[in-house]
């Protein structure tokens, strides 16, 4: 039996227009959250309260799936190649070094998992892309899978305190995640049994935004894995 989940303002359960896949629509680190445009004031306040960050709206090629098309740590940002100059400037104005990915594999939020200690990327990302990822994030970069899935950015969430990953993550993969991200890794689910953690969870070291269908037991796991109890 896991521990009982404790309510706090740093845990906000949210859906965007009734969609609980919050991880698809935004991307955060410890200072900032980039979200799709057009969220209500109430939702925006929840995001800011939970993560204790500044909120910045982005539009990438008319798409709302910011979480899938952008990935960040505290040093840099990598974004898909169909971003326009206006939105690119918005990211750069926040102090990020930005790399526009030119790889065939370009849904970077789905394909790269990163914190300030390391990055795990889709096994088919090209060598020259890996070099750039290393430069931008200023961390070692490794290829690999999570739960045998190549879309590592959606199969887990990594902060500088912990990793919560897909329920089918193997022990070997878990050990690999610990080595890369320099934090403990635990398995869990989101939104009432969904295995793609990154689709329903956005977290930093201070708090988490969690899809509205997530159960108390799942929230307990998030709290434990991402070390919100300390």
Description:
With 230 residues, this protein is α/β, with parallel strands linked by helices. The protein has one domain (14-225): L-arginine/glycine Amidinotransferase, Chain A (5-stranded Propeller). 29% of the residues lie in helices and 23% in strands. It is built from nine helices and 15 strands. The strands form five sheets. The protein has a three-stranded mixed sheet with strand order 1-15-14. Strands 2-3-4 form a three-stranded mixed sheet. The model has no long low-confidence stretch (mean pLDDT 94).
**Total number of beta strands:** 15
Top CATH class? Alpha Beta
Q: What structural class results from the helix and strand content?
A: alpha/beta
Q: What would you say the CATH architecture is? A: 5-stranded Propeller
Helical percent range? 25-40%
Distance between the termini: 19 Å
User: Rough shape?
Assistant: globular
Pattern of helices and strands: EEEHEHEEHEHEEHEHEEHEHEEH
How is the CATH topology named?
A: L-arginine/glycine Amidinotransferase, Chain A
Secondary structure blueprint with pairings:
Elements: E1 11-14, E2 26-28, E3 32-36, H1 41-51, E4 54-58, H2 66-69, E5 70-72, E6 76-79, H3 85-92, E7 97-100, H4 108-111, E8 112-114, E9 119-121, H5 127-137, E10 141-143, H6 152-155, E11 156-158, E12 163-165, H7 171-181, E13 185-187, H8 197-200, E14 201-203, E15 208-211, H9 216-225
Parallel strand pairs: 1-15, 3-4, 6-7, 9-10, 12-13
Antiparallel strand pairs: 2-3, 5-6, 8-9, 11-12, 14-15
